[in-house]
Amino acid sequence: MAARLQNRSTPGRRRASHSMESVLTEAVALLDEAGEPALTFRALAQRLGGGVASIYWYVANKDELLDLATDHVIGSLLSDVEALPGSDDPIDDLRTMALVLFDAIVARPWLGAYFMRNTNAQSNSLRLYERLGAQTLRLDLTARQRFHAVSAIIGVVVGSAVDLGQEPPQEVLDGKVGRDEYLGRAVQAWRELDPAGYPFVHEIVDEFDGHDDADQFRSALDLTLAGLRLQAGKAGA
Amino acid sequence: MAARLQNRSTPGRRRASHSMESVLTEAVALLDEAGEPALTFRALAQRLGGGVASIYWYVANKDELLDLATDHVIGSLLSDVEALPGSDDPIDDLRTMALVLFDAIVARPWLGAYFMRNTNAQSNSLRLYERLGAQTLRLDLTARQRFHAVSAIIGVVVGSAVDLGQEPPQEVLDGKVGRDEYLGRAVQAWRELDPAGYPFVHEIVDEFDGHDDADQFRSALDLTLAGLRLQAGKAGA
DNA sequence: CACATCATCGAACGGTGTTCTATCGTACTT
DNA sequence: AAGTACGATAGAACACCGTTCGATGATGTG
């Protein structure tokens, strides 16, 4: 069965004594250090100074471990969002919130992939969802429009995050090739393409070279929010 | 040692003869049948009637197998996009293309996760990217705006695709719980939340219940395209 | 002190991607 | 026609993964 909220932190001498908190904290630490592949039960056990099977007392399987770890960090993310000042423009507030989300994913790229998992099962995710949606209640929209608006914003965040979160291929991880050099090669390959066959790629290759992920995200977000503003204004007038 | 004479008379193990095409086709078939976890080298080898190690002659590792398989199906997807009639409104054309992409991901949910991997390495992905971007060349935008517009549209597709592509948890896969029942439970749980603490969730729970993924995607896409139209019009006038 | 329960752990199982080495079959050389 | 080089295949083994099982230390209760 699963561990309940009780926690005995009496320090054992030979045997390791864990707690839900420590398990999740170390799991997140592993994820932060080297992404999802780094989070293995064996690595986690070693880190906790205990045995592998012990972790299964706190967690049913790896899926649940990932869920709880995600919810754990979303908890603090939720605090950040709730601490936001807020303005008289709900769409501005939505923008600010989305930027906080994006920043969190930049700091923890592995978050992106697990961001939308089972909104129902993760309490903090749901509360974050509510927090975003609450802003749409201040807009003149139908219920369906509100639902779709929040979905769209989260979609933009996740869409950018997935792009951002994908780990560079072996070469870069091994340190043989620097990340900049890796991207530089791609740019170089693009430049050598047939300009007649790839007019667009040639048009934007300079933009791609040395582009800023945050800029890219902000632009995508602002397009969606501009559309939303239009939608809210249309019904209102 | 023994096989010298028996070569013809007694048919020993016939050696399998593969090809890049057959490897990729069977790999895609496995992915279609049960998603990424179903694509293992052993399952693929058995399907090809050969040994496990043989696959490594065609492919360096699983990552490359996934890349090539993805590029394989994107190839036919590209044909669909190129066969599109096209109109005098570039944004309409972008919308149509995005819908084709979305349909492809609905048909092959595993595609979503690998959709954006290494645009540079996958030739068909790059051509698809070019095809989308070409439409923005018909709009009055800066190079950077064009770059960001295409990124945004792809972001919306991927964002929806990730949401769509995540496999339901164990219960549903085991067939113990139907997918509708599973979603129904979530809806039920939402309805039982404190209305004061979760006003937005209560507002949209009816919309979520029995919602259509395609509707959700189309709404998100249209918000982005509305923003883009605004942006293009502003600079033009 | 006995006891039930919580919590921990080593060892093992089946599965995975990957590598090593040996081999077959064919096309070309001589 | 025999020999050879090489493209292509394959079995066995390795290291690692998530997961399970059974045993056992620790702890508070009667």
TrEMBL record, chains A, B:
InterPro entries: Homeodomain-like_sf (IPR009057), HTH-type_TetR-like_transc_reg (IPR050109), HTH_TetR (IPR001647), Repressor_TetR_C (IPR004111), Tet_transcr_reg_TetR-rel_C_sf (IPR036271). Keywords: DNA-binding, Transcription, Transcription regulation. Residues 1-20 are annotated as: Disordered. The keyword Cell cycle does not apply. It comes from Streptacidiphilus jiangxiensis. Pfam families: TetR_C_1, TetR_N. It comes from the Bacteria. GO terms for biological process: negative regulation of DNA-templated transcription. Residues 17-77 form the HTH tetR-type domain. This is Tetracyclin repressor, C-terminal all-alpha domain. Residues 40-59 bind DNA. The keyword Transcription applies. GO terms for molecular function: DNA-binding transcription factor activity; transcription cis-regulatory region binding. SUPFAM superfamilies: Homeodomain-like, Tetracyclin repressor-like, C-terminal domain. Residues 1-10 have a biased composition (Polar residues).
